[in-house]
Write a structure and sequence with these properties.
Phosphorylase Kinase, domain 1; five-stranded antiparallel beta sheet; binds uridine-5'-diphosphate; 2 domains; globular; D-amino Acid Aminotransferase, Chain A, domain 1; alpha+beta
C-alpha cells in the first residue's frame, strides 16, 4: 500500500460538534476535519466562528507536537492541510478529563466560587461523555462501576492530565497566556493510552496574563464579541 492510498479520505464515521472524522485505508489511522461550527451549553447555542477550524487544527497540532517532545504520547500523526490532520484511531474512553488551575465556568456556578479564584493546586474532574445527558460530572466509582474506565486507567488519566497541564501552562505562560482550565480526551490504542481529540480555544480557557481578557470560546458562549480575533490572537502567540 502506498502512502498516497493510506491518506485518502474514506467514509465519514463520526460527526461531532466541531469535527468530522473519516476512515482511511489503514484501520489504525483516521483523518480529522476541523469545522467552523460552534456550539455551547451542549448545543443549545449554535453558531459559526469564521476561521475557527483552521486555527484549532494549527493550535492542536502545535500542542500535540510540544507534548510529544515532552514524552506524552498523542494521537497526532501529521498535518495534512489547513483543516485536516492525520491521527491514530483510538477507542475513546467516555470520560472527559477537566483540569483547573483557576475557578471558572461550571465550577464557579456549581460550588458558588468567584470566577478568577486561584486554586491552591490543580483540580481534576471527570465528566461522563454523553450528549443526551449533557456530560454529567461523575466520580471514580461511577466510571468504574459502569465500566467507562478502570481504576488503573483513571490513575493514568489523572497523572497524564497533571503532566499535560504543567507542560501547557509553562509554554503558554511564556506567551503571556494563563491556562485557566482545559478538557482532555484520551483513548486506548493497542496497549497504550494516548491523548486524543483537540487542544484549542474551544476546549481550554485562555486568559491574557496582563489584562485577564478572555481568549477562548467564552467570548462566544457569553456574547462578548471579538471571537474570531481572540482565536487568531491565540494562534499568533503560540506560533511565535
Ligand atoms: N469543556 C469542553 N467541552 C465540554 C465542556 C467543557 O471542552 O463539553 C472545556 C471548557 O472549554 C473549559 C473546561 O472544559 O475549558 C471546563 O469547562 P466547564 O466545566 O467550566 O464548563 P462550561 O463553563 O464550558 O459549561
Amino acid at each position: 500500500m502506498t502512502i498516497e492510498t493510506e491518506l485518502k479520505r474514506g467514509e465519514m464515521f463520526y460527526e461531532g460538534k466541531a469535527k468530522q472524522l473519516f476512515a482511511t485505508s489503514d484501520p489504525d489511522l483516521i483523518i480529522a476535519y476541523f469545522k467552523d461550527d460552534a456550539t455551547a451549553f451542549n448545543a443549545k447555542k449554535r453558531g459559526s466562528i469564521e476561521g475557527k477550524g483552521a486555527v484549532n487544527n494549527r493550535v492542536s497540532q502545535l500542542f500535540f507536537g510540544l507534548l510529544e517532545s515532552e514524552g506524552i504520547r498523542t494521537h497526532f500523526v501529521k498535518r495534512l492541510n489547513e483543516r485536516e490532520m492525520l491521527c491514530r484511531r483510538l477507542q475513546i474512553i467516555p470520560v472527559e478529563v477537566v483540569i483547573r488551575n483557576i475557578v471558572a465556568g461550571s465550577m464557579a456556578k456549581r460550588l458558588g466560587r468567584v470566577e478568577g479564584e486561584v486554586l491552591s493546586r490543580p483540580v481534576v474532574e471527570w465528566y461522563y461523555k454523553s450528549d443526551a445527558l449533557d456530560d454529567p460530572l461523575i466520580n471514580d466509582d461511577h466510571a468504574e462501576v459502569f465500566g467507562w474506565a478502570t481504576a488503573q486507567e483513571l490513575a493514568r488519566l489523572r497523572e497524564l492530565a497533571h503532566k499535560i497541564n504543567r507542560v501547557l501552562s509553562n509554554f503558554l505562560n511564556h506567551r503571556d497566556i494563563i491556562l485557566v482550565d482545559a478538557k482532555f480526551e484520551f483513548g486506548r490504542y493497542h496497549d497504550e493510552i494516548l491523548l486524543g481529540d483537540e487542544i484549542c480555544p474551544d476546549t481550554c480557557r485562555f486568559w491574557d496574563k496582563a489584562t485577564r481578557a478572555k481568549l477562548d470560546k467564552d467570548r462566544f458562549r457569553r456574547d462578548l464579541g471579538g471571537v474570531e480575533q481572540a482565536y487568531q490572537e491565540v494562534l499568533q502567540r503560540v506560533s511565535r
